[in-house]
Amino acid sequence: MTDSRAAAPRLTTVRRGVVVAAAVGALVLAVTLGVLVGPAGISVRAVVLELVGALPGVDVSSGLTPGQQAVLWEIRMPRVALGLLVGATLAIAGAAYQGVFRNPLADPYLLGVSSGAGLGATLAIVAGGTIAGLGIPLAAFAGGVVAVTATYLLGRTVGGARSEVVVILAGVAVAAFANAGQTFVQQFHDDSLRQVYAWLLGRLATDGWHDVVVVLPYVAVSIAVIALFRRTLDVMAVGDLEAASLGIRPDRVRLILVAAATLGTAAVVSVSGLIGFVGIVVPHTVRLLVGPGHRLLLPLSIVVGGAFLVLADLVARVAMSPAELPIGVVTAAIGAPFFLYVLRRGRVTS
Fold first, then answer.
1. Which helix (H) or strand (E) covers residue 301, if one does?
2. pLDDT over 90 (residue 102)
3. Which of 175, 269, 277, 326 could form a disulfide with 201 if both were Cys (CB 3.0 to 4.6 A apart)?
4. pTM (2 decimals)?
């Protein structure tokens, strides 16, 4: 009996090590394919030589034309970097939401972020690309933040913000209101429907490194705050009363984590549009593989989320080349069947 008990922790450690190695390998593969593959007609050898030649002290000629170099350095690489940031942020935000609300089906859009961002982007689009001096990304960011703020204010008014259920229901109400407002605006501006739907379906098209630089500070703050509370999330899994008895203030922790997750989500959504299922599927998959402990769940969600979205974007780029699929369609095509499979097997675990 002693040997079998000692072997169980060793097997668990080995399994987690394998999962970590597989996640890192998937990330490396995703980044490599994202940089190498594309419809621009650049050979893999030339790309490799160009990247090697960019290393300090290495003088190698890739033979790429200035136009091909621009495609590599100003389109492909920023797009891969943006995919990593968006995927990682949505995944860790999903893990945080699932932890604070003790609901494995929660996602980063739970409290109306997507609806508020969609309304903000729609208003900016129908106004000709700007509203109150804000461009589409800033309008989407502001809309997402305003929606979550309204959710918390409504939740506090109704239930004193003492219950996560009240907050979730307030989020449903705010999301419904924002969706109604968006539909109303679209009804009177049907000439902009195509652009609105293109934004709503998600995209990672970039113009250089601008979007990456803009969202990076918000993503860094969001991830740092969520990671700081990883042990607290484990304690909160047992319930608010038990957590309070251990000296934790659940309402305060929930507010901080929701604010951090919303900040990161609103930032990446403002430049990528609405990309669904990443925040549900990735944390839930990682939880099934390594367990519910957030010490490992959060960093693995970052790695797997980034890899997943870069690979999904690669499919979006090449599946119907030279045309491009909306990345939200790809993530839904991958995520929805997996989600239904998990529900069918009854393996949704907290």
1. helix 294-318
2. no
3. 326
4. 0.89
Report CA-CA distances (Å) from 240 to 90, 92, 155, 237: 25, 22, 17, 8
Structure tokens at 292: 């519910």
CB 102 within 8 A of CB 236: yes
Cβ neighbours of residue 295 under 8 Å, at least 6 residues apart?
230, 231, 234
Q: How far apart are CA 319 and CA 236, in angstroms?
A: 43
Q: Give CA–CA dist 237/232, Å, rounded.
A: 9
Gap between the Cα atoms of 148 and 134, Å rounded: 19
- What DSSP string describes 39-56? TT---HHHHHHHHHHTST
d(CA 193, CA 256): 36
Cα dihedral value 114, 117, 123, 126, nearest 10: -70
Q: pLDDT for 170-187, tens place per residue?
A: 888 999 999 999 999 988
The structure tokens listed for 162 are 């003492």
One-letter amino acid at 196 equals: V
When pLDDT is averaged across residues 127-150 and rounded to a whole number, the result is 82
HSE of 72, CA atoms in CB hemisphere, 13 A: 24
Within a 10 A sphere around the Cβ of 187, how many other Cβ atoms? 9
Neighbours of 346 (CB within 10 A): 7
Q: Domain 2-345 carries which CATH code?
A: 1.10.3470.10
Cβ atoms of 199 and 139 within 8 Å: the answer is: no
Q: Which tops the pLDDT comparison, 343 or 159?
A: 343
| End-to-end Cα, the chain, rounded Å | 30
Integer CA distances (angstroms), 327 to 202, 295, 307, in order: 6, 30, 14
